Amino acid sequence: MNLLNEFIARTIPIVPKPIVGYFSARYISGDKLEDALRVTRKLNTLGACATIDVLGESVTRREESTAFADQYRQALDAIVRDKLDANISLKPTQMGLKLDREFCLDTIRSIASHAQERGIFVRIDMEDHPFTDDTFWIYRKLKEEGLAVGTVIQARLRRTDGDLDFLIPMQANLRLCKGIYNEPRSIAYTDREIIRENFLHLLDRLLSGGCYIGIATHDEMMVWGALRILRNLGLPRDRYEFQMLLGVDEELRRIIISAGHKLRVYVPFGSQWYPYSVRRLKENPQMAGYVLQNIFKRQVKNGG
Ligand SMILES: Cc1cc2nc3c(=O)[nH]c(=O)nc-3n(C[C@H](O)[C@H](O)[C@H](O)COP(=O)(O)OP(=O)(O)OC[C@H]3O[C@@H](n4cnc5c(N)ncnc54)[C@H](O)[C@@H]3O)c2cc1C
Q1: For residue 5, is it within any domain?
Q2: Fewest beta carbons less than 10 Å away: which of 130, 180, 208, 300?
Q3: Cβ neighbours of residue 31 closer than 8 Å, sequence gap 6 or more
């Protein structure tokens, strides 16, 4: 990202919401569950599976979490009804982690039990560092109870290599990603190349240790590195999957699928699209420039 784009990316939080909505539409399937189901159906016909995400995070009232849990139950019922190849992803702070850890555990447990009865897997997304320990705590509890759950680890965090010391022995099912949250240097690598090297180092350790891994990246160097590790280890194709976000690099998606690998697309839907959209725009190398152009054109049109 050049300096101008980086500057614009930092200013995205003050960009008017309709402009953010316009530029981020490609990352979101729509407002309704029906939108996510339609997109998932299409992905399934293209040879990809999906993970459906109800947009929402950092709830401040328990009733909000309960309402999100209901939406997830409806999504699970619809996945079964429509015979879709999909599971679900949810965020701990959407399930009340900022309010009460036990309440959050209970809410995620109720969704995971509903999913388990329908033979569907639940992924617990990883948010920023104040929630890492509690997310692992919830994950471990639910896994020990025999529920089909997994979580996420972030190559950006310095702690992650150490976390593998307990995650590998418990044969964790993990999504490995770089990590989207802007974390302080004291706890996170800030150098892009170190994050990349760490991503491949962690992947090698996890796959060698027998864990099922969702390799979540659009970085072709990481895909290339992952393929090399998979080949060296001689792993069968049911021990891993690639994962990508809706709206990002469909060509890479097609390349991975046509090489015969399993690929899952993250399909978000819902009315609370704003925080997710801002994160996506910030990591899009070209988008920041388009946003600025659009604001500039509006200024000129309005005579300002
Ligand atoms: C399925 C999935 C689930 C995820 N879940 C989590 C999670 O639970 N917690 C978490 O912290 N992070 C999560 N992430 C985000 C992840 O941590 C990274 O921030 C994100 O994937 C970008 O990293 P990258 O490996 O694609 O590499 P980058 O170097 O950021 O991107 C590589 C290339 O991909 C393209 N690209 C990347 N992002 C965009 C975009 N938004 N728009 C357009 N092009 C883009 C660009 O061409 C870019 O050069 C998830 C990512 C995926 C794919």
Answers
A1: no
A2: 300
A3: 269, 270, 271
Asked whether 222 lines ligand 1 (CB < 6 A), one says yes
Is 216 near ligand 1, meaning CB less than 6 Å away? yes
Number of domains comprising the chain: 1
296 domain-assigned: no
Q: Is residue 23 part of a domain?
A: no
Q: Which of 149, 218, 250 to mutate to test the pocket of ligand 1 (most atoms within 8 A of CB)?
A: 218
Which stretch of 22-26, 75-79, 157-161, 230-234 has the lowest confidence by average pLDDT? Answer: 22-26
Q: Tell me the helix, strand and coil percentages in the chain, rounded to 5.
A: 55, 15, 30
CATH number at residue 39: 3.20.20.220
* Residue 207 pLDDT: 98
Residue 70 falls in the annotated catalytic set: no
Residue 126 CB less than 6 A away from ligand 1? yes
Q: Which atom of ligand 1 is nearest to the CA of 199?
A: 25
Choose the residue to mutate in 90, 217, 243 for probing ligand 1, maximizing ligand atoms within 8 Å of C-beta: 217
Tens digit of each residue's pLDDT (9 = 90 or more) over 135-160: 999 999 999 999 999 999 999 999 99
pTM passes above 0.90: yes
> Three-state SS across 45-81?
HCCCEEEEEECCCCCCCHHHHHHHHHHHHHHHHHHHH
**Across 21-32, average pLDDT:** 93
Work out the average pLDDT over 276-286.
84
Active site residue 125: yes
Domain hosting 249: range is 29-272
Query: 240 in a domain, yes or no?
Result: yes
